[in-house]
Amino acid sequence: MRIFKKLSCGTLEGLSSEKANDPHFQDIVSKLSIASFVETWLGDFNAYTNTQLDFIEFDNVTELVNLGDSEYHPDRTLSRNNLDHKHTNNSGKLLLNMCKETKIRILNGRTTGDLNGQPTCITYNGSSLVDYTLTSEELIDSIGYFVVHDFTSLSNHRPIS
């Protein structure tokens, strides 16, 4: 099963769910400067994020240290909605931390076509938002439309595009 797909520059190697849930792998991914080589990721992250922030709030380090304007760019405040009100799980915390560390942003719930953060998966115990599209903060304004499509008979996950 492919979990991550890089758009516009080919496909990253597929990762099994077992590998993606390996704490050592997650630690490595969270520390990489992913923003330098990823433009857009989409896939099943098995992460509940609720409406927790994927950016650093009140990011204004330039007041604390003497950095030139070109050396540091604070995070933008970008509100995000989510109709899945489950508590943030460990995978969600890892995903949110990776986003904060790399300036990657979640499109679900903040983009025209999915302003509410529609659930992406339905199982015997309810629906949830676990399939995400992520993009760099620099590209988020160039995303014109993002949608969570209707369920199909082929999967319990709704297609996202």
UniProtKB/TrEMBL annotation:
This is Endonuclease/exonuclease/phosphatase domain-containing protein. Residues 83-160 form the Endonuclease/exonuclease/phosphatase domain. One of its GO terms (molecular function) is catalytic activity. It comes from the Eukaryota. InterPro entries: Endo/exonu/phosph_ase_sf (IPR036691), Endo/exonuclease/phosphatase (IPR005135). Pfam families: Exo_endo_phos_2.
